[in-house]
Amino acid sequence: MIVVALFMFLFIAFAAGFLYFWGINPGEVTVFLTSEQSFTLPTSIMLVLILLIGLLLGNSVHIFSALTSTAKIWRGGRKQKKAEEIGVIYRSGVGRLLSGDLKKARTLLKKALDRDPKRVDSYLALASVAEQEGNTQEAIDLLHKARKLDPKGLEILFKLARTFQNEDRREEAMAVYKELLAGDAENRKAMRALRDLNIELGRYSEALELQKKIIKATSSGAKSVAEKQIMSQLRYEVARADLDRGEAEKVVDACRDMIKQDASFTPARVTLGDAYRQLNRASDAIKVYQDGYKALKKSIFLARLEDVYIGAEDPAALLSFYRSRMQEDKDDLLLKLYLGRLCLRLEMVDEGLQHLTDLEATGIDFTKLHLLLAEAHRRRNKIDQAVVEYQKALGIDSHLSLGFVCEECNERFDTWQGRCPVCKAWDSLVLPERKQIQDAKVAESPQPIPHGQREA
Question: Bacterial transcriptional activator domain: from which residue to which, for each copy (predicted)?
Answer without folding.
Answer: 237-299
